Amino acid sequence: MSFSSTIALLSRAVLVAGTLAALAPVRPALAADNGIPEVLKTIPRATGVCHKNDGPGGILPTAANTPADLGCATSAAALQQRPGALLVDVRQRSDYGSYHIDAALNASLGDLHGKPYWRAKPIVLVGSGKAERELYMECSRLKQQGYRDVAVLRGGLASWIAAGQPLAGHAPSLAEATRLTPDEFWQESQDPDNLVLLSKEQVALQDEVPFAMVLPRIVLADVRAILERRRKDMKNAPLAAVVLAIDAAAPQGEVEALQRALLPVPVLVYREGRSALTRQVALQKAVWLAQARGPKQAACGQ
Fold first, then answer.
1. Secondary structure letter of residue 17 according to DSSP
2. Is 261 helix (H, G, I), strand (E, B) or coil?
3. Are β-strands 99-100 and 168-169 bridged in parallel, bridged antiparallel, or unpaired?
């Protein structure tokens, strides 16, 4: 292998290792080094990630080392009782430009660590409603860095839409805001704080998501019974969201009625089948192999 080829391969490895913490909130034990090029096998794992405007030391813990603080959750209704809160929409600028809560500011998660003058303010993190584990972990990190009052809008803008709250711009429908792609479903299904429910038409997904529950009917009473059983069995452990896998032909009106009735519990919906998910699982396994021996960054700016 030429020197230039080696450098190119290392660059791709750095890019993969630096962006995958959010893609795999729960990472199973990895197999041996099968499939990893020899040049990557001696590179130690990364233990931190740098953000622009980081505080002292410059390195934040990786997602795997930060607990998700679901005690940060606040609902759209409760947010109305926090008139002085600073809403921070952490989505990409293009998404924020399409639609957002009128009073919200747009800032990245990294930006928050460079604004010590915000630490005395009540802060509410606002996301899309998907991959919210990252926001709950960020809430924990911000508290460790001295933020006095941090919350996460539970269910993000999807729950805001479900609650019928106003938005600036052109907001998507509730169906669009809560519909999961295969990779998003895989990510949400790996979050231990989510409850995954399958309709009988989607029972084949249990091969990939064995801890999911299958319901013969996806109706409000049955879902509420499952939530109550979970509450008792898990001694009131917080619930991040319900992840619902249903048949593609399920009537959208019935699904939306269920979503609104279960508020403030967010309900995300997956309508694709097992084949789409198995392709995503295969891709994720390849990603884990590439991530297994990512580069270690000793200090930011070096």
1. H
2. helix
3. antiparallel
Q: Is 159 exposed, middle or buried (0-12, 13-18, 19+ CB in 10 A)?
A: buried
Q: Evaluate whether 101 touches 89 at the Cβ level (below 8 Å).
A: yes
Give me the sheet containing 73-74, strands edge to edge: 73-74, 149-153, 122-126, 86-89, 105-106
Q: Which pLDDT does position 300 carry in this prediction?
A: 52
Q: Range with the lowest mean pLDDT among 49-63, 68-82, 97-111, 227-241?
A: 49-63
pLDDT tens sequence across 138-189: 999 999 989 989 999 999 999 999 999 999 999 999 999 999 999 999 999 9
Task: Report, as an integer, the average pLDDT of 128-139.
Answer: 95
Q: What is the pTM of this model?
A: 0.74
Provide the pLDDT for residue 51. 42
161, 179 contact by CB (below 8 A) = no
The mean pLDDT value for 225-249 works out to: 95
Hey, what domains does the chain have and what are their CATH numbers?
Answer: 65-169 (3.40.250.10), 174-282 (3.40.250)
Which two tokens mark 246?
């249903």
Q: Residue 94 contacts by C-beta under 8 Å, 6 or more apart in sequence?
A: none
For residue 252, give the amino acid letter: Q
- Single-letter code of the amino acid located at 230: R
Nearest residue to 240 via CA among 232, 248, 230, 250: 230
Residue 93 main-chain phi, psi, to 5 deg: -60, -40
